[in-house]
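Final report, closing paragraph on structural work. Over the funding period we assembled a curated collection of sequence-structure pairs, and we close with a single example.
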Amino acid sequence: MGKLFDLSDRVAVITGASSGIGRALGEALAGAGAAVVLVARREAALDAAVEAIASRGGRAARVAADLLEREALDALAARCAQPFGAPLIVVNAAGINPRRPVEQVSFEIWDQTIDLNLAAPFFFSRALVPGMRAAGWGRIINIASLQSARAFPDGLPYGASKAAVCQLTRAMAEAWSRDGINCNAIAPGFFPTDLAAPIFNDPQRAAWAAGQTCIGRNGRLEDLGGVAVFFASRASDYVTGQTLYVDGGFTAK
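Its predicted structure, as stored:
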């Protein structure tokens, strides 16, 4: 059974890996044996993430890049193959949530949110697919959201982009699963990240969010690791096109 979750022969690339969910998932995949390539803009934070993984005996490298630069995504995919070889696992965790009342959503805010949350996962994954196809095996893990299924104030562009991530995941699965490349999504509930800081910085809002779950608490970043390893491993060989809500039962109520 253990071999089903063993990633010691795999290379994984994780975007948005300098903090929050991306960093946590990078650490989880490294803990399962994968060599991980961490991608984000902030070099110092990336260095700290690499050091944290190495201190636990893991293998990690970092590539500083801005995923909003669409024309550079093919080159970025090639750079991510340099440290350990062609990545067969990609986790698309980079994202933004600008939080604006609907009347204040500008064209620029809309475009940046859709570009980073929706377009980048597609174009970056597509750039990595040839290597996966050559190996006859691959895993694409997108990060959806509680807002894929729920509407919250001041979150219209973010919610629209994350709802679309669920359909993107299904479409990717339809396009590439016959090549052995499965695509699934993780939809986190409320977790203590930079994006969710407005919630966790307000004790009343944090308590409200916890009270909406079946479990009775908000998420801890370690709650996401097992799901990521499952989707990244051979254990999910017959699972594709799915979105799994890791939300403590928020969407069950």
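The helical segments are 20-31, 43-55, 73-80, 107-135, 156-176, 197-200, 203-211, 225-232. Residues 2-245 form a domain with the Rossmann fold fold (CATH 3.40.50.720). We thank the funder for supporting this effort.
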